[in-house]
Write a structure and sequence with these properties.
With 493 residues, the protein is mostly beta strands. The protein contains three helices and 35 strands.
C-alpha cells in the first residue's frame, strides 16, 4: 500500500495509528506446470463495502450521502456494481489479477467525513483472494490521506469460485478487512471485522482447460491371490500432451521418478491420439477407457519385487515419454483385501490424515493507544495493543516482529523526538513453542530506530503467539503544550 499523508492528524490526546507491514512469508505450494496468462475481455464486480456503514452514512447530511461515478453504479439493494477494466488469468494455477473501474463517495460533512473507495482489483492465487482499492479520506484536508491500491479486504475463495469454460465466477465470497485496510479507513473498523460479501465474474478469449479426472471400477478390497481386472475411464485429458505423445495409465508406487521410468509399474497402457497397434486411443475430446490387471505383488522389468500390501500403490496417469508436463497427473490409491491374521495374532490399520498449512500472519487488537495527559518533564505510561502472530507455514523457520515510531508532533508544530518513547515487551506462546520478548528500551534511547518486540527462533516458531509491551513516553522539558500524535509501525518477517 502506498500511503501519502496530506497533513498531521488532528485532535485526540495521545492518539496513535498502528500501520502493520507484513514481511514476506514463504509457503511451499505444489502447483501444475505454469501456463501463459490469458488476457481478460469482460467481467463484473458487485460489493457493498459494509451495510452498517452505508446505513450510518445515509442518516447524515451529505448531498448526496453516497454517490457512484466513473463506471460504478448503485444497485437496488444499496450495494455497488463496478465495470470491468482489464486483467489476466492463468487457467492452470488459478492466479488472476482483475481490475475494475468505478468510484464510490461517502459524505457526512456533519461528522467531518469524506471517504472514497475507487478502482477495486480482485487478486487470486495460492487458494487466497484479496480485494485492493484506492482509498481517500478527506483528501486535501489537514487530516486527510490517500492510499493507492490498498489491500482492503481478504477474501475466502475455497468453495466459492467456479470455472465454467472461459468464465470464472466468485459468488458471495466472505470478506474481512485487513490491518492495512483498517488503517486506510482511519480505524473505523478493526482488522478481521467482516465486510459485505464480494461477487465477481470475468471471461477470457481462451477456453479454460478441463481438469483431468479418472473413474476406476474398483480400488479397495482387491484380491490378494489372483490378479484383479479393473476398468479405468478418464476425461479432461489433453491429446496433445508431451508433444502429442499422449499419456500412460499405470499401476504401482508413486516413486520420485514415476514419470520417467514406466518399467517400475506392475501394469501400464499407452494412450494416444491415432494410436499404433501397441497403443490404445485417447479421444480428441480428452476421454478414454481402458483396463488394467492389478496384482498385490509383482516383479518389475528390472527384477525387483513390489508388494502393494506393504507400500502404497496407485492407479496413475501422467504425460508419456518422460515429459515434464505434470498437468496430466492423477493418482488414485488402491488397497487389497486384508491378510487374515493368524490365530492370536495381530491386526493392523492404516491411518491417514491431511494437514492443512497456512501463512505467517500478524493481527493487532486495535489501531490506537491513548496515553494519559502528563506534565512537561514527566513520563506518561500505557500499554501497546497486543499483537497476535500465527505461524502456520509448517516450516518452523523462525520469525521476528519489530516496531519503530516516528516523531510525535502537535497541530501547533511541536515535536517530541521518537526516541523519547520506550517500551518493555512481553510475549507468550503455547503448545511447546518458544517466543522471546525483545529487550526493554527506555525513554531517550527508545523506538526512534527499529527494535524487536518479540521473536521465535527456527525450530520452535510454529503456533500462535501474543506479544505486547508496556509503553513509557518521556516528555522533555523543551516540549510545548498540546496534543501530540505519532505512528508506530510493526513489521513481521
Amino acid at each position: 500500500m502506498i500511503l501519502s499523508k496530506a497533513g498531521v492528524r488532528r485532535g485526540r490526546t495521545g492518539r496513535w495509528l498502528a500501520v502493520v507491514a507484513l514481511g514476506a512469508a514463504t509457503a511451499l505450494v505444489a502447483t501444475p506446470a505454469a501456463a501463459a496468462e490469458a488476457e481478460l475481455n469482460a467481467g463484473s464486480l458487485s460489493w457493498g463495502f459494509k451495510e452498517s456503514f452505508r446505513n450510518y452514512v445515509k442518516r447524515g447530511d451529505g448531498n448526496p450521502p453516497i454517490a457512484a461515478s466513473q463506471g460504478a453504479t448503485i444497485n437496488a439493494d444499496g450495494t455497488f456494481s463496478f465495470s470491468f477494466a482489464e486483467g489476466t488469468y492463468d487457467a492452470v494455477t488459478g492466479a488472476a489479477s482483475v481490475e475494475y473501474d468505478g468510484k464510490i463517495a461517502f459524505s457526512y460533512p456533519g461528522h467531518g467525513m469524506n471517504i472514497t473507495i475507487a478502482n477495486p482489483t480482485i487478486v487470486l492465487g495460492n487458494g487466497t483472494g484479496t480485494l485492493k482499492a484506492d482509498v481517500a479520506l478527506n483528501p486535501g484536508g489537514a487530516d486527510g490521506f490517500v492510499a493507492t491500491q490498498a489491500d482492503l479486504a481478504v477474501l475466502t475463495t475455497t468453495g466459492n469460485v467456479a470455472v465454467d469454460g472461459a468464465v470464472v465466477t466468485g459468488t458471495n465470497l466472505p470478506a474481512a478487512i485487513t490491518a492495512a485496510g483498517a488503517a486506510a479507513m482511519d480505524g473505523f473498523y478493526a482488522a478481521g471485522e467482516a465486510l459485505d460479501p464480494v461477487s465477481f465474474a470475468f471471461t477470457s478469449d481462451d477456453s479454460v482447460p478441463a481438469t483431468p479426472k479418472v473413474n476406476i471400477s474398483k480400488t479397495t478390497g482387491l484380491s490378494l491371490d489372483e490378479p484383479t481386472s479393473i476398468t479405468v475411464t478418464g476425461s479432461g485429458f489433453d491429446p496433445n500432451a508431451a508433444g502429442g505423445q499422449g499419456i500412460y495409465v499405470g499401476f504401482g508406487p508413486k516413486t520420485e521418478n514415476f514419470h520417467t521410468n514406466s518399467a517400475i509399474l506392475g501394469a501400464a497402457k499407452w494412450l494416444k491420439a491415432n494410436p499404433a497397434s501397441y497403443q490404445e486411443p485417447l479421444n480428441a475430446d480428452g476421454t478414454f477407457s481402458t483396463t488394467l490387471s492389478l496384482s498385490a505383488v509383482y516383479t518389475t522389468r528390472g527384477g525387483e519385487a513390489v508388494d502393494c500390501t506393504q507400500v502404497q500403490c496407485y492407479v496413475m496417469t501422467f504425460a508419456a515419454h518422460g515429459s515434464t508436463d505434470r498437468s496430466q497427473d492423477t493418482f488414485a490409491p488402491v488397497t487389497f483385501a486384508a491378510v487374515p491374521a493368524p490365530e492370536g495374532g495381530n491386526a493392523s490399520q492404516q491411518i491417514s490424515a491431511t494437514v492443512l498449512g497456512g501463512p505467517l500472519t500478524l493481527n493487532v487488537a486495535g489501531s490506537s493507544v491513548a496515553l494519559p495527559a502528563a506534565g512537561i518533564g514527566s513520563v506518561t505510561t500505557g500499554a501497546l495493543n497486543s499483537a497476535t502472530v500465527a505461524d502456520l507455514r509448517g516450516t518452523n523457520a523462525g520469525w521476528n516482529l519489530v516496531g519503530q515510531v516516528g516523531d510525535f508532533v502537535s497541530a501547533d508544530g511541536g515535536v517530541i523526538a521518537a526516541d523519547n518513547l520506550g517500551w518493555t515487551p512481553n510475549a507468550s506462546g503455547a503448545d511447546g513453542s518458544v517466543v522471546t520478548p525483545g529487550a526493554a528500551a527506555t525513554p531517550g534511547s527508545g523506538l526512534g530506530s527499529a527494535r524487536t518486540l518479540c521473536s521465535s527462533a527456527a525450530g520452535a516458531s510454529a503456533g500462535t503467539f501474543t506479544c505486547g509491551a508496556d509503553l513509557a513516553l518521556g516528555i522533555p522539558s523543551t516540549a510545548s503544550a498540546g496534543d501530540y500524535t505519532a505512528t508506530l509501525t510493526l513489521t513481521l518477517s
